[in-house]
Every structure is written in C-alpha cells, then in structure tokens.
Amino acid sequence: MGDFHQPRSNPQGKQYLRCSLGSYFPGTTQLVARNSVPLGSLLKRNRLIIADDHPIFLGGLERLLSHDYEIVAQVNSGRELVDAARVHQADAIVADYQMPDLTGLEALAALRAVGIDTKVIIITMFEDVEYALDAARQGVDGFVLKRSAASELLQALQVVLEGDRWISPAIRDQFEDRELEINSARESEDTVIHSLSMRQREIIRHISKGDIAKQVASRLGISRKTVEYHKYKVMRRLGYTSSAELIRFAVRRGLDQD
Questions:
Q1: Closest by CA position to 124, among listed 154, 167, 177
Q2: What pLDDT is attached to residue 236?
Q3: At 236, is the secondary structure helix, strand, or coil?
Q4: In the chain, where the domains are located
Q5: Has domain 186-252 been given CATH number 1.10.10.10?
Q6: Which of 84, 163, 214, 234 is the most buried (most CB within 10 A)?
Q7: Which pTM value belongs to this model?
Q8: pLDDT in tens, 7-36
C-alpha cells in the first residue's frame, strides 16, 4: 500500500494531497485537490463511518479520508457497521459490498428498517453492472469500483453529500443503458398482481417465506424447473434481477400471506 504525504502547494497556490493506494486504487501516485471535497468548514467536518473486512484497505481509506472528514468509526463487518451507525450520527457511510455477517447492502437494509437514512457509498471489486443496479434499487447513493483512482472516491463523496447519485465512470454508461432498458420493460405492480395465476401466487408466497425452489417444488408437487420458470417470468415482468427484490415485492403487496 502506498503512502499518504502532507499537502503541498503548486505554483498556482492550490493545495494538493499526494496519495497512492497500490493495487486498491491504481494510478499509483496521484494529486488530489484538497478543495475538491466537501470541506464544509474547518470547525465542522462531515462525519464518516468506513467499513471493510480487509484491515490494510480500511487503513488506507482512513488515511485518505481523514484529511477532510471526521472518521467517527472504522468497522470490519456488516453487523459492526449497523451497530456503529446506530451510535454515531454520521453524514455518510463508505462500506465494502462483501463483508462478514452482513453484506454492505444487507447492512443498509437493516439501517433503513430502523429509520437511519445516512448516505451510503458502496465500494466493491464486482464490476458486473447488475451489482450496481441492485445497489441503486436498494437505495445506495454511490457505487465505486475498488480499482478506481483515489480521487474518484473523494469526488463520489462530494456528489453524494450534495444529494446526487454517483456511479463509477467505468460502468456508468452501461448502468444507464441497462436502467433505461429495465424501466422500459417493467410493468406496473398492479398490472402484474392482477394477472398472476394461482400457481404463480403459490410459488411467490412460498419463496417469500424463505423456501428455495426445491422446497417449493416439493410442497406444491411440481418440478423445480416449473417453479423457476414462473419465478423468473414474474421477475422479468417487474424488471427485477434478484430474488431479494421479488421477496420485498411480495411482502409489500401482501403476497406472502396464506
């Protein structure tokens, strides 16, 4: 992991932070303008919680962000993140997608369930745009690839704290194209509900109660292939890409009830 050095001035008088994060934030050594992040004031800095299960990377985040933000907690798991967010009134959370106990998205869901609406940026090695789409649907404010430059995370924080969404430029075009495609194909929930067959309602009810396809097939006396066919047909109509979305839909619309 590279070092973070003290700010220096260029001939134009701007202060910069020289930083490098090796394989985590390629670009090896970069100059990041200190006035490119939301400083607020010298007396009151935005408060951050940072979460990652790799101590070296977590330390790198702390050294990068602590120049301009108050780091109120550093945690190594999803459950620790939820606990920290309940204790500290943070302005934003920077969390790894994949962590022990709870993923970053599962931790986010737990926070939203208790009314904590802190801004959340997910950082991840997963470059498949479907991960970003799922994160956005679950309320994530920013999605940053770990291979991005350190300056991108600083920019993402500024954008998110100003109330906008940030998607890594490396996948942004693909994300927006896919989002448009999904929105164009999606039918309204009411339309889908009114057209569900009895079999589809039974399948969705069992899935929403935690049964996997094999268990649903056994309970209903049908093949696993039939279960998956109906499940994914409903998901496609709703524009969903994960079982978690389907379950949330079922619970929200009462389809989980016997």
A1: 167
A2: 86
A3: helix
A4: 8-181, 186-252
A5: yes
A6: 234
A7: 0.61
A8: 333 434 433 333 434 334 433 334 444 444
